[in-house]
């Protein structure tokens, strides 16, 4: 896995960052690293620790569970600061970047895929996880390729990279509907409200095991690379983050975190 992530980092040209003073120093001075996330119970990356109570607007790592929580806890420890996780202002991936740019946190860690459009607004760390997008349909569907999506009704999570990719592949915008959560995607297909949905392979695996009426029709081109997003001016924080993620990979700790959460690639 280490060699794969290093190759991805080089491919994205993310291996080095130009350092400027201010951002990292401010985090250390405040004693708190505030991470913006979209916690939801379907996610192995950030979800609420229900044993500790409902999702807080802002809370410590103990109130949350997931891969991103473990990674950010280790990063905060490296910086010698407390970790606080701030719930996104609206239940949508589309609110993550606006919240960051509005200054509601220092960075985003929420299984966020690097995309061209997002990269115009924020800077991304080296990737720490690779997945891919799949088109999921009912088992009686005749959809088995991209051309079959013409004239069909699709549904995706609002603000997700899935919407961006479908548009880039020529799927008409008026043929794509939106929901807020992955389970709503699957329910829409099962109930006949949509002909297909697009989800990450990580999200598809457990649902397909539990629901025999759903199946993967085909895989969309390319791969999804999850990374941490920071404001473009936070170059010192980004440099420290990249160094930390590199060490997490080379030490094997990242693989241990992923394995601990039983996530299939």
Question: Which features does this protein show?
Answer:
265 residues, alpha/beta, D-Maltodextrin-Binding Protein, domain 2, five-stranded mixed beta sheet, four-stranded mixed beta sheet, 15 strands
Give a structural overview.
It is a single chain. By secondary structure, the protein is an alpha/beta fold. The chain has two domains: 2-130 and 224-260, D-Maltodextrin-Binding Protein, domain 2 (3-Layer(aba) Sandwich), CATH 3.40.190.10; 133-219, Periplasmic binding protein-like II (D-Maltodextrin-Binding Protein, domain 2, 3-Layer(aba) Sandwich). It is built from ten helices and 15 strands. It has helices at residues 2-11, 23-30, 67-79, 96-101, 116-119, 161-168, 182-190, 201-210, 235-250, 253-260, and strands at 32-37, 47-48, 58-60, 64-65, 82-87, 107-108, 122-124, 129-131, 133-138, 154-157, 176-179, 196-200, 214-219, 224-226, 229-231. The strands form five sheets. Strands 11-10-12-9-13 form a five-stranded mixed β-sheet, covered by helices on one side. A four-stranded mixed β-sheet has the order 3-5-1-6. Helix 6 links the parallel strand 10 and strand 11. The longest helix is centred in the C-terminal third of the chain and has 16 residues, at 235-250. The chain is globular and about 55 Å long.
């Amino acid at each position: 896995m280490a060699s794969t992530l290093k190759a991805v980092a080089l491919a994205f040209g993310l291996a080095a960052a130009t350092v400027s003073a201010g951002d990292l120093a401010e985090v250390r001075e405040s004693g708190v690293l505030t991470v913006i996330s979209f916690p939801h119970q379907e996610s192995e990356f950030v979800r609420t620790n229900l044993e500790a109570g409902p999702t807080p607007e802002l809370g410590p790592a103990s109130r949350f569970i997931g891969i991103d929580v473990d990674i950010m806890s280790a990063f905060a420890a490296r910086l010698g600061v407390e970790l606080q996780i701030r719930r996104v202002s609206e239940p949508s991936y589309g609110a993550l970047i606006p919240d960051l740019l509005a200054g509601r946190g220092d960075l985003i860690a929420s299984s966020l895929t690097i995309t061209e459009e997002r990269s115009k607004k924020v800077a991304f760390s080296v990737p720490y996880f690779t997945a891919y997008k799949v088109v999921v349909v009912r088992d009686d569907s005749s959809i088995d390729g991209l051309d079959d999506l013409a004239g069909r009704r699709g549904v995706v999570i609002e603000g997700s990279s899935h919407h961006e990719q479908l548009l880039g592949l020529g799927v008409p915008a008026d043929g794509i509907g939106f929901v807020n959560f992955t389970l709503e995607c699957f329910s829409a297909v099962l109930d006949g409200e949509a002909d297909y949905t697009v989800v990450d392979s990580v999200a598809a695996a457990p649902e397909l095991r539990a629901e025999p009426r759903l199946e993967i029709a085909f895989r969309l081109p390319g791969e999804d690379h999850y990374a941490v997003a920071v404001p473009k001016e936070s170059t010192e924080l980004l440099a420290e983050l990249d160094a930390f993620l590199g060490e997490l990979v080379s030490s094997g700790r990242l693989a241990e975190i992923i394995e601990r959460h039983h996530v299939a690639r």
